[in-house]
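[Discussion] Sanity-checking designs against the backbone

I'm trying to build intuition for which residues belong where. Below is a structure token string of 110 positions. I'd appreciate it if someone posts a full sequence so I can compare it with mine line by line.
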């Protein structure tokens, strides 16, 4: 199981690479998703993103066009929202939100 993203570029223009999936070491992917996106800063905290996504699944690989936004909302909520248009004409969307740890939450040793 993996879920990773990274970017290369400056403050205004960036190449984003995102991937997630499942599989076993030394074996084939059970399923995987790869995205290559161009990101453009539209404010100090938000990037508009556009690019391509490719899914690898048993028996049916599929490609998509992607349009999305990623950034930091008030109270440090990380938001990643995207719409996808497949080569078969299917339209889907995804919204991911991640909140910061609760105040005072720390890792403790047993």
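Best answer:
Here's mine. Compare freely.
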């Amino acid at each position: 199981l993996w879920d990773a993203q990274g970017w290369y570029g400056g403050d205004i223009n960036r190449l984003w690479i995102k991937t997630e999936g499942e599989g076993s070491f030394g074996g084939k992917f059970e399923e995987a998703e790869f995205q290559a996106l161009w990101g453009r800063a539209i404010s100090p905290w938000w990037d508009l993103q556009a690019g391509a996504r490719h899914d690898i699944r048993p028996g049916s690989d599929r490609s998509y066009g992607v349009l999305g936004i990623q950034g930091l909302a008030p109270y440090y909520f990380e938001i990643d929202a995207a719409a996808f248009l497949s080569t078969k004409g299917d339209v889907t969307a995804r919204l991911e939100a991640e909140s910061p740890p609760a105040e005072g939450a720390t890792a403790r040793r047993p």
